[in-house]
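quick one: pyridoxal-5'-phosphate bound model?
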Amino acid sequence: MKNRSSAQNEFPLMEKGENNVVLFHPHIPKNGINEVTNTLNSRWIGQGPKVDMFEQKFSSKFANGNPSIAVGSGTDALHLAYLLAELKEGDEVIVPVFTCTATNIPFLYMGVKIIFADIDAETMNISVAHVKELINEKTKAIVCVHYGGLPCDMDELKAIADEYNIPVIEDAAHALGAKYKGKSIGEISDFTMYSFQAIKHITTGDGGLLTFKNKNLLEKSKRLRWFGIDRSAKQGGIWENDIYEVGYKYQMTDIGASLGLTALEEFDEILSHRQNILKVYNENLVGFNDVKLIGTNCTDREHAAWICTIYVENRLALQSKLRDYNIESAQVHYRNDRYSIFGKRRHNLPNMDMIEDNYLVLPLHTRMSGEDAKRVCDVIKTGW
Ligand SMILES: Cc1ncc(COP(=O)(O)O)c(C=O)c1O
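yep, here:
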């Protein structure tokens, strides 16, 4: 093992190069640049007709036709979901400790109390058993994150939420195209949010979308996305409109939607490319005792293959070895209770405690091939 400290930045960002397998790469659709150029040559570059079109196409593909609101980021979509769910100061929410901080930061603005739940050791998704222990009358929502693209235990989470008559809010930033018991992620819960940040399955530069079941929330969601203003009334010239809700500026732009629309056209290819790479990791690493693949054993749900995570002892040594072979790897997300903004009090969460130093994310994107993934596996199997 090389003598490395635990500092992550000992592995600076790897440049693209012929023999380099980078961790992430944005997917720019074939028609994306043309479509963006067309938009730039048109009258609408901000939120206009392409955003509407993107919402409609997205909704029919992933959300069973439910209302879908395109916004500036996944974080915006989460904040919007929490506002629409009427979470407020003093309420408690149960959230996964292991996620992008974006899942939980909106609660800090809202004064909502975050209760961190442990992860399931097999999937790194929220632990249903721990949610059951934590829930009480003060809990007003359960938030789950489909880590890496593997759906959480939705039936179990919904059963707990139903008992307390509270919503499940899905952070599906990683899980576009995932399925749970035959249903698309996006048509199951009261609220589901997506991210179209640069390295997600599809990107709008930065962007996100919230889909929800209650059609009565549609107008409110549009107002909150746009300063609290009823935009259609304003465009009709009715300036008497009052503003009675504190809104944000959370809209997607037509520039972003142009990329999003062209990415939707090739989404099936994108998903199957990613799933094939995950399959290569599975076929080559399952059975190799020194690493364990996270979340690949479930047969009742379909993995969206956003990232591939392994559990490994001496993680830094493996990272270093991979780097010697021009292969980038990293941890990507960290337990949220290590950050001062969340109170910086490490909670006693046995599965998270066990895994936190020992997980590693391997390259997975559309600019790499199955052979690249096989090369990563071959290097891993020579030991570290
Ligand atoms: C699990 C998760 N939730 C939320 C977000 C936030 O999405 P965005 O970057 O689009 O705001 C991300 C990452 O980008 C994420 O990985």
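Residues 267-285 form the longest helix (19 residues).
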